[in-house]
């Protein structure tokens, strides 16, 4: 989509996206997570079904982020683990097919900010701070304007009702409570 207005603007010395609606490009959205297994090794996974919109307001504090994640799209590189994650012991995708994030306020300075929002996973909603960075703008070969963002937050999965675990003989638990969520997205200006 080609627009006649500038895709970026200068705000307090920082180049940022112009006000408007920027839709997440599902083909260029990476919502990943990292947890610990056996209290030591890292296990990584990602969701491939991601959609949503970033609405950039004239005043950045009024901007909004809305994201929907299809929980059944989880991939960890291990089909048996993926099925366990989808099961009623963990994500329970039959009852809770989607996770959502809806921002309630944005604190922004320069090219970084915090989007405070309601994260709903497993039917439980909690407010979490999502640390966000704007990485720049590019015009794609089809004339579309793209804004690139990343984000990160850490949650306690048990606070969202995902409590399955196993005690280890030597002490500790099989799966960590703390899960770090990493986000890399391209958005396309829609209006």
Automatic annotation (TrEMBL):
Family: Belongs to the UPF0312 family.
Protein name stated in the entry: Lipid/polyisoprenoid-binding YceI-like domain-containing protein
Source organism superkingdom: Bacteria
A matching Pfam family: YceI
InterPro entries for the chain: Lipid/polyisoprenoid-bd_YceI, TTHA0802/YceI-like_sf
Gene source species: Nocardioides koreensis
Lipid/polyisoprenoid-binding YceI-like domain span: 21-188
